[in-house]
Amino acid sequence: xxxxxxxxxxxxxxxxxxxxxxxxxxxxxxxxxxxxxxxxxxxxxxxxxxxxxxxxxxxxxxxxxxxxxxxxxxxxxxxxxxxxxxxxxxxxxxxxxxxxxxxxxxxxxxxxxxxxxxxxxxxxxxxxxxxxxxxxxxxxxxxxxxxxxxxxxxxxxxxxxxxxxxxxxxxxxxxxxxxxxxxxxxxxxxxxxxxxxxxxxxxxxxxxxxxxxxxxxxxxxxxxxxxxxxxxxxxxxxxxxxxxxxxxxxxxxxxxxxxxxxxxxxxxxxxxxxxxxxxxxxxxxxxxxxxxxxxxxxxxxxxxxxxxxxxxxxxxxxxxxxxxxxxxxxxxxxxxxxxxxxxxxxxxxxxxxxxxxxxxxxxxxxxxxxxxxxxxxxxxxxxxxxxxxxxxxxxx
Length: 396
Hints:
Mean pLDDT: 90
Number of strands: 16
Helix content: 25-40%
Order of helices and strands: EEEHEEEHEEHEHEHEHEHHHEHEHEHE
Radius of gyration: 20 Å
Distance between the termini: 10 Å
Shape: globular
Structural class: alpha/beta
């Protein structure tokens, strides 16, 4: 089959790889019909290269048709249309039963000290072959894949794999009170969808912050009060502008949907780039012990949120040597919540929004739809924020 493989920093290729097969009784094999390109895939493209191996199959946002199931998968059969969560979880362990499938005790990558295995996401998360491919082996298929109705196009349901539950959890963790205020840093796919969900769930005012014109224009059309970071002399001026709109206090909650590749953190970017250029035998241990993030977005969130407010992190961070303003966090009595999205925990709550009326605008959420063969171009375009690329779907 054809699959998108990682070959090095900023080097992905579509190659022929062996077809997946049933290996365990709880496996299924899915023929992919749509697969997303996620912002966190870009971390593998550059920042997290020390944890990658040439030939790794990328991708973790799959939807498709069941081709084959193992004998331990009673509720699926060939021909079922399914969307597959990005994490691999059993559904039966203590963590899964408490609503934390990202910490599944059956698939935890204990050798790396990490939580549940993920599709297509480095050796830290199990080096499981990913979903930017023609076919996908799905472990723990007795729990993960969700059947969806025939008829509506893939765009109606494919975002249940990652975008929708990640944005939903970000809003849930933000804990915006009824009629409250929320600021969202970064208006890529997760930030954009978090704005839509927050408004649908009753936030009175949502402030969206970015520096990409297409992202700002899209959020503005959805009723978000947008702020272009480029039009302010510095980040403090932007913080003051939003404080002025919220009684001088700041918003009740802030979602950081940017993560480790924030603009404006030059020293950290240099360190990340230098680590990525080292031989893998050196760069891996160095990154594990001394990795740092570009913390511009997180520092802005800390300055922006009101005292006693909440910061919800959905952007990916991976540093271990990051300086944090603990005095400010403590003094402002800020609550901080974060983590990979617990997909199956939220999908029953999200599903009513995937109606004919499409209140979250999923049908036209993708800005680009490309053949899988054009994956290298898709990564390059998304990395450089070209051609208005906000959300890319690929079809094998």
